[in-house]
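During the reporting period the student researcher (J.K.) took over the structure-prediction task from the postdoctoral fellow and processed the backlog of single-chain submissions. One of the processed entries is reproduced below for the supervisory committee.
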Amino acid sequence: MPAPGRCGHPCHFSAFTGEEEFILSPGTQLKVTGVKAERGGLCTVRLTELEEQTLVS
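J.K. obtained the following structure tokens:
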């Protein structure tokens, strides 16, 4: 789960109330740590937030 204060939960605005959704702050960096293929073509992707890094502009 993303660090508190770096994301928001849009549960009151989402059309997908049965799913866990997050709005991430700009610059948030994620790493794919797992992919699971499920029935009906659905894929679950597990992400891990990387430690805050200085971005080059």
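The committee noted the following: The two ends are 27 Å apart (CA to CA).
J.K. will present the remaining backlog at the next meeting.
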